Amino acid sequence: MAMRVNPTRMELTRLKRRLKTAVRGHKLLKDKRDEMIRQFIIYIKRNHQLRMEVEDELMRALARFARAKAYMGAQKALGELFCPSRAASFEIGKRNVMSVDVPVIKHTGADDKIELPYGFAHTSGELDASVMEVVRLLPLMAELAQVEKSCNLLANEIEKTRRRVNALEYVMIPETEDAIKYITMKLEENDRASLVRLMKAKEMLMEA
Amino acid sequence: MKNKIAVVGGRDSVMLFNAAGLEVRYASDGKAVEKAIHALARAGYPVIYITEEAAEKAPEAIKMYDREVFPAIIPVPGGNQPKGLGLRNIKKNVEKAVGADILFGEGREQA
Question: Which residues of A touch B24 (CB under 8 A)?
């Protein structure tokens, strides 16, 4: 037996109360874990899909940009992009998913109107296309950031919760049950001992 | 909290984001990447995109913000080929949360 306890009635009541709390906590945490995993799976599927999409599109934009650099010369192409003519704006917030704070990131800039930060005279069309593709990609990238961070935070929380559930299920609850059993048995034994002592004493009194 | 988003990476790969209106920081070696991440986090940027090349050079700095809600540090491909760092992170999360890679098991066989 791992837990050393005093075999007293007070200790027994205390342990029984503790066992009740542990069992209830275990049930609650288990439910929390199950629901978090359900949510997590929804998020992670979206995360996977978004990441594939964003990586794909981004690769295409970067490849176009590489071609533009080849046409115009790297220095010039980079120079044209140096001064942005638009500022991307985002809405940032927080949301609570199963007691985990997760970020909310939304692209709010207008994406129908795309201004290029340079004139068309000395630049390649590939450059325009690559910049526009990245601008079009911003809402998706914002969602990717939101979903990926949410997954990360949820995964950490799930791990923590699972550890707690296991600790309760395999350590705390069995140990407390053992201790309760030990105390009940010890008390019963004491009862029997005192009964036998009384009977013996009575017998001796009768004889005398 | 700012409502701007920053990008960290090599000069060639992040210039496109500059034109799209994001804030960019050039960083090519590990120290510079770390410095950029910490500076941006302190400045309150909620999201930092980082090219995979840069992310591989400063894993500790990225790990430091793992448990915070902001900033979200998100790897994006920066070179010619995605290195799969983002997908690896997704898999890691699945394994951490569920205990086994139950969703993309078939993807691993192809890789």
Answer: none
The angle, 0 to 180 degrees and rounded to 10, between the axes of the packed helices B85-98 and A9-72 is 170
Whether A160 maps to a domain, the answer reads yes
Instruction: Check A90 against B4: CB less than 8 A apart.
Output: yes
Structural domain harbouring A176: 9-202
Render pLDDT for B12-34 as a digit per residue (tens, 0 to 9). Answer: 788 888 888 888 888 888 888 89
CATH code, domain with B35: 3.40.50.10580
Q: How big is the A-B interface in CB pairs under 8 Å?
A: 147
What's the complex ipTM?
0.86
CA dist., res. A198 & res. A196, Å (int): 5
CATH number of the domain encompassing residue A86: 1.10.287.3240
Domain that holds residue B88: 82-111
B28, B55: one domain: yes
Task: Report CB contact under 8 Å: A102, B69.
Answer: yes
Are B67 and B29 within one domain? yes
CB contact under 8 A, A81 and B19: yes
Cα A131–Cα A133–Cα A135 angle in degrees, nearest 5: 70
pLDDT in tens, A118-155: 777 777 778 888 888 888 888 899 999 999 999 999 99
Give phi and psi for B47, each to the nearest 5: -130, 135
| Chain A residues lying within 8 Å of B79, measured CB to CB | 62
Distance (Å, rounded) from C-alpha A38 to C-alpha A34?
A: 6
